[in-house]
Amino acid sequence: MTRLFEYILAQDDPFDFIYEALGGTHGVETMNTCTEMYYDISADYRLHPDDDFERIIEIMVDQMEVV
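-> structure tokens emitted (67 positions)
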């Protein structure tokens, strides 16, 4: 997972990459990892998955930088 996070953070725009990954653009494994993280953050921070997607993805990027 750490290698995936490093790869995502190395992209020109990690936010856009994650957004695309959630839709399956970057493969099933990447989609599954990002989706799991997305819904974990949504629950942990009490953010609505549909309405707060920008904030959730921002937190994802922040957490990937820490790992």
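Residues 2-66 form one domain.
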